[in-house]
Amino acid sequence: MSPLKLKKGASSHSAYNLRPSYGEEVEKHTLAVVVDNEAGVLARVIGLFSGRGYNIESLTVAEIDHDGHRSRITVVTTGTPQVIEQIRAQLGRIVPVHEVHDLTVDGPSVERELALFKVTGDGDKRVEALRLADIFRANVVDSTLESFVFELTGTSEKIDAFAELMRPLGLVEQARTGIAALSRGAE
User: How far apart are CA 160 and CA 150, in angstroms?
Assistant: First the structure.
């Protein structure tokens, strides 16, 4: 997966260097960080980002090895290639961190996000919301006479597109999990 290029100024990435140098592109990267599953580790990892003014666009955390007490933190962040490399190096220096992988540059990967959408309405808007949900393969996980709650899994772009289409039909609330990602292939 190649890095997603953003326009200059689209996102600040460091409190110390707010503007990229001429010719440097701001890129979006997905980092997978394997850490000890113990109190305070997430705060230390997140503190690295906030202390240096780096932006976090998505963050997910879950235990991946119960016996080994390990968790995986998936962080989507933006910055110039130099800033991304600084983030990787600084994450690797935190004691409870075991592995840091930049899934954006390490090779092909699969990224998915789960979202819930509450849509209210009646009549034609209700029928149209159900029709669009079917096209997007969204599941109805709750239904009342006044509303639906849809569950949708897919890329962030798919989630964004569904939200845009549901807004005029009565979208009142949404919740998103953030990105979960794995590299493709045997390794």
Answer: 14
For the domain 109-183, what is the CATH code? 3.30.70.1150
Contact between 106 and 183 (Cβ < 8 Å): yes
Domain 4-102, CATH among 3.30.70.260, 2.60.40.3880, 2.120.10.30, 3.30.950.10: 3.30.70.260
The three state secondary structure string of 95-146 is CCEEEEEECCCCCCEEEEEEEEEEEECCHHHHHHHHHHHHHCCCEEEEECCC
Predicted TM-score (pTM) of this structure: 0.78
Q: What is the pLDDT, as a whole number, of residue 15?
A: 42
